[in-house]
Each structure stands twice: as structure tokens, then as C-alpha cells.
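hey can u run this one w/ 2-acetamido-2-deoxy-beta-D-glucopyranose bound, need the C-alpha cells asap thx
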Amino acid sequence: MIAMLLQASLCLASCTPEKRAKNTRKEWSALTKPERLDYISSVLCLQRLPSLLPSVPGSKSRFDDFAATHINLTLSIHLDGLFLPWHRNFVWLYEKALREECGFTGSQPYWNWPLWASNLSDSPLFDGSDTSLSGDGASLADPQNYTLGPGATLPHGTGGGCVLDGPFVNHTMNLGPFEYALAFEGILPSNWSAYNPHCLIRDLNNYISTRYQNQTAVDNLLDSGDIVEFQERLNGVGTNLGVHGGGHFALGLGLQDFFASPLDPAFYLHHGAIDWVWWLWQNGGNGTGEENERVLALNGTDRIFNPPGSDEVTLSMVANWGILGAEKMVGEVMRVDAGEFCYGYE
Ligand SMILES: *[C@@H]1O[C@H](CO)[C@@H](O)[C@H](O)[C@H]1NC(C)=O
Ligand SMILES: *[C@@H]1O[C@H](CO)[C@@H](O)[C@H](O)[C@H]1NC(C)=O
Ligand SMILES: *[C@@H]1O[C@H](CO)[C@@H](O)[C@H](O)[C@H]1NC(C)=O
Ligand SMILES: *[C@@H]1O[C@H](CO)[C@@H](O)[C@H](O)[C@H]1NC(C)=O
Ligand SMILES: *[C@@H]1O[C@H](CO)[C@@H](O)[C@H](O)[C@H]1NC(C)=O
Ligand SMILES: *[C@@H]1O[C@H](CO)[C@@H](O)[C@H](O)[C@H]1NC(C)=O
Ligand SMILES: *[C@@H]1O[C@H](CO)[C@@H](O)[C@H](O)[C@H]1NC(C)=O
Ligand SMILES: *[C@@H]1O[C@H](CO)[C@@H](O)[C@H](O)[C@H]1NC(C)=O
Ligand SMILES: [Cu+2]
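ok here u go:
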């Protein structure tokens, strides 16, 4: 009943095919060089605009406001039922800020992982050129394996230090970092909002991207029979990172940070791709539009790891994005062509 009401109130008709065609999100390599430069200069602009979050000393720009909001809500928006809907609107709000505050004229690009899984530094996204989002970090003298849990480690990549080239070479991460274990302990440190400037780090890791982000991994994900399976394959189990964890780990400690990962502009292309595969999967079921139950499928609560006692996510649950945008019902963000959204993917 609620689903029907939501569908009716979403007014699909206002997102016409013409409007939607003008807002097509593409893989980074499918953008022309001027389009890539337009995106990059809009992100640099957002990094220069003053923060609107005076209560967070470490948030120094509008770009940082997005990471600060993500940090604050981390324990309710990951590895649970809110993860997909929350991040869909988060990426859309970022795209909106790039447009409305920084004159961006394109659409939010994404990172099609399998294209570059065997050689990340070969990707136009991470090749370190002026039309990339910067490349690898400096290589470390004594790189450590990444620890996922007791006895579970993964090898480091080729960098690990400060980013060496490209447009974000001078970008400063102003918040964090946060220990990996904090998310598992369910702790948001009381000093989360502190100012702690440090360089943008990257550690391109072909070992991880080859294993978790290849075409087979994406095909398996899209082949998921229901939302429970889709979320499991997305996030992986144990040392299987899934394509979501794979993208975070393949870029090093900056992106591995559960809380502060949006401080690296690559976050938004990774999550653009998460949104893309979710929408592909949502449309892969039987029937189309309102008849496709995948479009409205949810599973989990509003707390990391779905602990007993936390609230089951429903279409009528109200989610919030802090100062970034208005509260929305989960049911308002399930489609990319309804509600406030009118975009597509190619
Ligand atoms: C990745 O691509 C670059 C540029 O084409 C090349 O120099 C490098 O050897 C490649 N690395 C691997 C591991 O294939
Ligand atoms: C790092 O992991 C590799 C296997 O992935 C293992 O052979 C090596 O011993 C580990 N190194 C350390 C310092 O733990
Ligand atoms: C980074 O900062 C250095 C030193 O201020 C400057 O010479 C260089 O042009 C800057 N690079 C970019 C891409 O902004
Ligand atoms: C927050 O406090 C912890 C524990 O005292 C410390 O390790 C960390 O560096 C602090 N973080 C910031 C951003 O100041
Ligand atoms: C490709 O991904 C699948 C699923 O993650 C994995 O089982 C397989 O080993 C990967 N292939 C390679 C060459 O690593
Ligand atoms: C579509 O419906 C058929 C018949 O009910 C079923 O066997 C199949 O698994 C469904 N496919 C998807 C992707 O849900
Ligand atoms: C979510 O999936 C789990 C595992 O299949 C199931 O036990 C639970 O009932 C599901 N929750 C909802 C609300 O469907
Ligand atoms: C952090 O989240 C809490 C609870 O949702 C909210 O009351 C508070 O305003 C948020 N702070 C920021 C800086 O977003
Ligand atoms: Cu996140």
C-alpha cells in the first residue's frame, strides 16, 4: 500500500525521456578531455568554496562538508539496509552542488571497474595526467599488508604515500583518518570533527582490483536473485571484498577509511558505479517500472551490521543527509527517473 502511494506520488511523468537523455552518466573514459576538465575544475571549485558547517572545525570547504556529513552518519549507512538508498542521494547531492555552486554542466561520471582492473595506473581515471583524478601515491619504504581480520591480510599496492601528480596533487584531507576497526566496534570517535590536515594518499592495487573488480565479479553481482544476495555480493564476505570493498581497498588507506573516504574525489566515481550496478540490477528482474519488485527491494536496518533492535529499513523510513539536502523517504530514492531524480547511465 505504501509502495503504491509512493509510486503514485513520485510522478514518473515529470522525468521525460528528453530530460533524462540530457543527464546521462558515463564512464570516465567515455568523456571527452574537455568534459573531464570541466568535471575536475568543478571539484576543485567545491574544494575552494567555504564550508557551511561551522560546527565541524575540520570541514574547511563545501567539498569537506560532504565528507563530514558522511563521517557523522557512517554507522547508520554502511553494511545495512540504508547503504544503497543513502549513497544514491549522496552522490546526487554532490552532483547538484557541482552544478549549482560551481557551474558544472555535465553529469556525474562513474568508474567501470573491470575496464582497468588489471592495470589501474593505465586507466584515464588514475594515470596521473591533467585529465585524471590524479594517480598513485609515492611508494613507501616499508609498506605493510592490509589486515582485514585475524589471519586475513592482503598485499599492499604500488604507492601508499602522498599523491604525486595530476589535478589533486595539492589537495589536503582535513578530517580523519579513522582506524578501520572503529566501524566494526560501532564507535564514532568524539573528536571526529577535529581539523587534522594531511595529504591525499593513494595506493593503486592491481592485485585487489584483478580479484574483486573483474567482469566476472560484476556479472555475478548482476546475476543476484534477490536484494539479500545482491548486497552480499556487493560487499563480499571475509577476504572476498566484493566490488564495493574492492574499489575502496584498491585505492589504499584513504578510500579504505569507512568514515572519511569521501575526502578523495575518486569516492564519487566509485559510488557512481555502485549506483549504476544497483540500477542495472533493479531493472534486470521480470517486468518493468512499478511491476518490477526489484526496484523497491530493500533488506536490512538503519545500523551497521543490522543488529537486533535497530529499525528495519522500509520505503517510508525517513533518511537524512545533514545540511547537504532535505530529508527524504527511502521510497523517494529507489528510482533514478522519479522524485527529484532524472538521470540515466550509459
Ligand atoms: C600498466 O600500464 C602502464 C602504462 O601503459 C605500463 O607502463 C605498466 O607496465 C603496466 N603495468 C602492468 C602491471 O601491467
Ligand atoms: C603479506 O601478505 C603476503 C601474502 O599476500 C605474505 O606472503 C607476506 O608474508 C605478508 N607480509 C607480512 C609482512 O605480513
Ligand atoms: C601545487 O602546488 C605547487 C606549489 O605551490 C604549485 O607549484 C603547483 O602548480 C600546484 N599544482 C597544482 C596541480 O595545483
Ligand atoms: C582523535 O583522538 C584519537 C585518540 O586520542 C587520536 O588518535 C586521533 O589522532 C584524534 N583525531 C584527530 C583528527 O584529532
Ligand atoms: C575474478 O573475480 C572473481 C569473483 O570475485 C574471482 O573469483 C576470480 O578469481 C577473479 N579472476 C581473477 C583472474 O582474479
Ligand atoms: C522471472 O520469472 C521467471 C518465471 O517466474 C523466473 O524463473 C525467473 O527467475 C525470473 N527472473 C528474474 C530475474 O527474476
Ligand atoms: C532480510 O534478509 C534476511 C536474510 O535473508 C531475512 O532473514 C530478513 O527477514 C529480511 N528482512 C526483510 C525485512 O525482508
Ligand atoms: C550528526 O548527526 C546527528 C544525528 O543524525 C545530527 O543531529 C547532527 O546534526 C549531525 N551533525 C552534522 C555536523 O551533520
Ligand atoms: Cu559510504
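The mean pLDDT is 93. anyway lmk if its weird
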